[in-house]
């Protein structure tokens, strides 16, 4: 709301800061909206694109909930990665499309964060070929992991599992999210809606997808440093 509105406008603008309003919104209003207007769960990972530039440096944000959510469970996950670190690095080298990858423990989840080129399914298939045994050791510690072990004989199921646990990647422009919602409902593509304030559609999508990757991220290759540019232009430092 623009500054300088009337008394009622200012009152409405202040409502989100009030504890009673936030409590009512969280436990009554949003659940009611979600019940009246079910929002589809949008799939994880990058969306399909035929544009070559959109298939370079793609992100995977794989969140794997641990079976044992104690410190012992987290230690077992750390140990499984440490035991196989040489094989992991060799496998990543052999895949050949990975820019970087790392495993991190966040809360009760073991996460694999990576950036790669090309198709998602082929990326996971290459992983199965090169370091499938490592993923088998990890999946034994993860909720639902037993259904895809060994990965070499459950290739499609493993790809589906990874896709389901890869964070949904919200578009760089929030209004594009509404187009994806309508497409998931089978409705014709519509023009993106205007976003002037916190939208009900955005709230409902984050109610359905509580964990998301915000935007496609910054992607670039190393270029010239500021010092190199200034020196080339004769500007000193």
The general outline is: globular
Number of strands: 5
Q: In terms of structural class, how would the helical and strand content be classed?
A: alpha+beta
Oligomer: single chain
CATH topology label of one domain: Alpha-Beta Plaits
* Parts with pLDDT < 50 across at least 5 consecutive residues: none
Compact overview of the structure:
With 237 residues, the protein is an alpha+beta fold. Helices cover 46% and strands 13% of the residues.
Structure report:
This protein has a three-stranded antiparallel beta sheet. It has a two-stranded parallel ribbon with strand order 4-5. The protein contains nine helices and five strands. It has a domain at 52-168: Alpha-Beta Plaits (2-Layer Sandwich), CATH 3.30.70.100. Helix 5 (120-139) crosses helix 6. A hairpin with a 2-residue loop joins strand 2 (98-106) and strand 3 (109-116). It is globular. The longest helix has 20 residues, at 120-139. The mean pLDDT is 78. With 237 residues, it is α+β, with helices and mostly antiparallel strands.
Topology:
Layout: H1 7-14, H2 19-36, E1 58-65, H3 71-83, H4 85-95, E2 98-106, E3 109-116, H5 120-139, H6 155-165, E4 168-170, H7 174-184, H8 200-208, E5 212-214, H9 226-232
Parallel strand pairs: 4-5
Antiparallel strand pairs: 1-3, 2-3
Helix pairs in contact: 4-5, 5-6
